[in-house]
Every structure is written in C-alpha cells, then in structure tokens.
Design a protein that fits this description.
- The longest helix is centred in the last third of the chain and has 16 residues.
- The protein is built from 5 helices and no strands.
- With about 80 residues, it is mainly α.
- The termini are far apart.
- The protein has 2 domains: about 35 residues, no CATH class; about 45 residues, no CATH class.
C-alpha cells in the first residue's frame, strides 16, 4: 500500500523525494531528517568515488550523514 501511495504522489509531482521518512510518530520523522543524504550530496559522493575531481570545499560542506559516509568509505579504501 505504501508503494502505491508513493508512486501516486510522485506521478502527481507532489514530491521530489529529497526527504522521505516513514515512521510511527512525528517526533521520529523529525529526527529522521538529520540522517538523510540529500540528492545533491549523493551526486557529489558518486562523483568523488567514481574518480571525478571534486573540490575539497564541496566535501567539507557535506552535512553530517554524507560526511560520515564519505569518511568511512575513504578510510576503508586506504586500509585495503
């Protein structure tokens, strides 16, 4: 049912899915926004890990969840 609802909302252009949180309470939904990697940051990370030159300034401006992912993946690639 949720899948059908989300598809309909997308078809009607009511969201661009930058933030989608499905939680039991409003409080949890607000908390979830702090753990979201937005579309723009996802593209920066994809570029970086694909070998495309990304400025250090862009990497430094990543929000906490994206920065955490970037640091973990970079650290793991160095120990391999």
């Amino acid at each position: 049912m949720v899948q059908i609802t989300l598809k309909k909302v997308e078809d009607l252009k009511l969201t661009d899915f930058n933030h989608v949180a499905i939680d039991g309470t409003i409080k949890k939904a607000y908390d979830s926004n702090n753990n979201v990697i937005i579309k723009k940051e996802t593209q920066i990370l994809l570029d970086y890990f694909s070998g495309v030159q990304v400025s250090q300034e862009k990497l430094d401006k990543l929000h906490k969840p994206a920065k955490k992912y970037w640091k973990i993946k970079t650290w793991m690639s160095k120990i391999k």
